[in-house]
Amino acid sequence: MTRELSNPEQYSNLWNNESEFLESHGIYSQLSKMTPAGKVLEFGCGVGNGTRHLSADREVLSLDSNSQLIEKARNITNESVIIHQCDFFDLIEEDKGVIAEFKPQVIVGWFIGGCGIDIFKYTQEEPDVVTKSKLYREKIEDIIVSPDVCLESVDNIHLVSRGALAAGFSEAEIFTETKKDYDTYVFEKIGFEVVEVKNIDWPRDGSEFQYGQAHNPNFVDGIAVPAITSIVAKRVK
Predict the structure, then answer these.
(1) Which residues, in sequence order, are bridge partners of residue 107?
(2) How far apart are CA 66 and CA 116, in angstroms?
(3) Which of 8, 57, 61 is nearest to 32 (CA)?
(4) The model's pTM
(5) Helix locations, 35-124, DSSP H
(6) Are the CB atoms for 17 and 208 separated by under 8 Å?
(7) Which stretches of the chain score pLDDT less than 70?
(8) 71-87 tens-digit pLDDT
(9) Torsion angle of the four alpha carbons 231, 63, 203, 142, in this order, in degrees rounded to the nearest 10
(10) Which of 127, 159, 174, 202 has the most CB atoms less than 10 A away?
């Protein structure tokens, strides 16, 4: 069963294995240390590994639509973590109320993804199967910065994605290009700007999770290095 064909239950099992793989390499621990201090609104609890690390020294409200993932996450997180089931693409008044009552200071969106059924449902305008996952992530990033989610209480947003970097570029060059991209298409419109970009090794060897690789013209005739990219944006207006 591939992710592209998965339903929510099948995806929860696929992601459980991948999340445990990332956890075994200390990825969530590293990312939680990169997350600014404050009350965290987490988009996607997954199986709870990231949630557990975030909640070690923070209050956390985690949102997810997958009931199987939510059950797994509740089994490994403490009672202080609030996990709320909702549809990111159709937040009802109850969902908005839960967010407003929590008054988040930081929004986290790590490894944004979903089962094949959801990805295909919300990216019908994109014919390329490989590109659908990227578009799905971008649509959820737009929801994260929407007025119903990114409230006045929010000072920082922490996004984390997986991809590939062109070998040979300096950290300064990567920061400049990433900042330009995310400020232009995600953050400037809400008065935020990227203040930190960090890349850590993405352990692909041994992983059985299937990732789509959208074409990137920057890597033509070049070497692409797998990486996990952490992007922190701060409110400036």
Answers:
(1) 41, 157
(2) 12
(3) 57
(4) 0.93
(5) 49-54, 67-76, 93-102, 116-122
(6) yes
(7) 1-5, 210-222
(8) 999 999 998 999 999 99
(9) -40
(10) 159
pLDDT of 207 reads 76
Task: State both tokens at 53.
Answer: 């690390």
Which of 55, 46, 52 has the alpha carbon at shortest distance from 19? 46
Say if residues 32 and 101 touch (Cβ distance below 8 Å). no
Nearest partner of 70 among 53, 83, 87, judged by Cα: 83
The Cα 154–Cα 232 span in angstroms is 13
C-alpha pair distances (Å), 164 with each of 86, 149, 211, 229: 31, 29, 12, 9
* Cα separation, 179 vs 231, whole angstroms: 8
Amino acid at 56: A
Question: 221's torsion region: left (phi>0), alpha (psi -120 to 50) or beta?
Answer: left
Q: Which amino acid is at 129?
A: V
Cβ proximity of 12 and 208 under 8 Å: no
